[in-house]
Write a structure and sequence with these properties.
With 424 residues, the protein is α+β, with helices and mostly antiparallel strands. The protein has helices at residues 2-32, 47-54, 117-121, 202-205, 211-400, 404-423; strands at residues 37-45, 59-65, 67-71, 80-85, 100-104, 112-116, 130-132, 136-137, 140-141, 150-158, 179-183, 193-200.
Length: 424
């Protein structure tokens, strides 16, 4: 009985688990606003395509988006990563496939990136790290799809797009995608959207795990394919047709310009032949002038050589004459220096004689003036004595009446005395 009870309980638990898991998945899909369809195109989508899909009966939301497959730069492993635009509302449609933030924050500006929780846990990357991508992925030039190739990891998220073990495939590398990362739509520079996410009222009316949902989804897929075919015809008409017409116009213009260019080329060739003939004539005339000029140059060279020889001969003669004159000048300078030395010696001796004569003169003059002063002093004393005697005699004569002759003698003596003093 215990074994039977255990078996019944196990079976009842298994039956109860499936509805519970379905309900959990339904809640997760609803909270994430998971799309019903993902539309992709090799030529992308424009605004008219979005409007056409939005107009399909039963479509409730359309969110255009971008993605591309890139390779991490060799310095960070070279793995293939699918870069997807972070979900954003479009026009009147709400955002689909919203991310669940697990850690950090969502990108707020260009150059920021978030990585799926599974990808972050299975790598050496951490929030705050920088990831760099190569500008090419296989044969694809990513500079036409991305405007930046280095991003800072700001968060870890969970996405409803890839909840199974099947992670999608790619044409880059070995075909497998190792990680999914999300950046702002502004980081994509494609002119056309690369994918459309579509949500219908089917998911509102039926469970995603019901047969009715599968039937309605398959039916709606046919309608969307018909819409896609119509849009392809419009694309072929508007874009490819316009491009083909532009190409045709370009070819017409090419052929017209080619014909014009061929005509101009023929005229140019004719003009070239004429110019070449004139050129050859001018070359011949110039060659003759060149030959004549070369003859004149040869003659001038000979004359130049002759003049050069004469010049150097004259220079040699002049240098010899200059050397002789310099020798004569040197001899004359030596004679001058010798004569000057002799003359200076004579001058020195004569000056010495003159100085000695002056010394003798000054000595004799000094002796003479000394003797003269002595004689004058003696004469003056004698004269004064005589004058005194005459004065005394004069006084006596005056008294006796014989004064006339002594006075005359006295005046004569005074005069002689004055003359003697002036001569001294």
């Amino acid at each position: 009985m215990a074994i039977i009870a255990l078996g019944v309980g196990f079976f009842a638990g298994i039956k109860a688990t499936a509805p519970s898991m379905y309900n959990l998945a339904e809640t997760y899909y609803r909270d994430s606003n998971l799309m019903d369809y993902r539309l992709v195109s090799t030529v992308g989508f424009d605004e008219d395509d979005v409007e056409a899909v939005s107009a399909v009966n039963g479509v409730t939301s359309v969110m255009p988006s971008y993605y591309c497959d890139a390779q991490l730069s060799s310095g960070t492993g070279g793995d293939v990563v699918r870069l997807i635009a972070v979900s954003q509302a479009y026009s009147d449609s709400e955002a689909l496939n919203t991310l669940t933030l697990k850690e950090g924050r969502l990108p707020q500006s260009k150059g920021e990136i978030v990585i799926e929780e599974e990808g972050l846990s299975g790598s050496n990357l951490q929030i705050g790290d920088t990831v760099a991508f190569a500008e090419t992925a296989g044969d694809n030039d990513l500079t036409e799809q991305l405007d930046e190739f280095e991003y800072t990891i700001v968060g870890m998220v969970e996405s409803p797009l890839y909840i199974s073990y099947q992670r999608g495939s790619t044409t880059v590398g070995d075909g497998s995608i190792t990680q999914f990362m999300y950046i702002l739509p502004d980081n994509f520079c494609s002119q056309r959207y690369t994918e459309l996410y579509v949500k219908t009222d089917i998911s509102e009316r039926y469970s995603a795990f019901s047969d009715e949902y599968d039937e309605e989804i398959e039916s709606m897929a046919s309608t969307l394919e018909s819409t896609a075919d119509a849009r392809c015809e419009v694309f072929n008409s508007d874009v490819i047709g316009a491009a083909e017409q532009e190409l045709k116009d370009s070819w017409d213009e090419y052929y017209s310009e080619k014909e014009k260019a061929d005509s101009e080329l023929a005229d140019a060739e004719e003009e070239l032949e004429r110019a070449e003939s004139e050129f050859n004539d001018e070359i011949s005339a110039a060659q003759q002038e060149l030959d004549d000029a070369e003859g004149q140059i040869e003659s001038a060279d000979e004359q130049l050589q002759k003049s050069r020889d004469e010049y150097y001969s004259q220079i040699s003669s002049a240098e010899s004459a200059l050397a002789a004159k310099e020798s004569e000048l040197s001899t004359a300078r030596e004679e001058y220096e010798a004569s000057k030395a002799e003359f200076d010696e004579m001058i020195s001796r004569a000056q010495a004689e003159i100085d000695r004569g002056w010394d003798e003169y000054n000595t004799a003059y000094s002796e003479f003036t000394g003797k003269l002063e002595s004689a004058l002093s003696a004469g003056a004393a004698q004269t004064e004595s005589t004058a005194d005697e005459l004065s005394n005699a004069n006084s006596a004569a005056y008294a006796s009446g014989t004064l006339a002759v002594p006075n005359a003698q006295l005046e004569q003596a005074k005069s002689s005395l004055e003359q003697s003093k002036k001569g001294a």
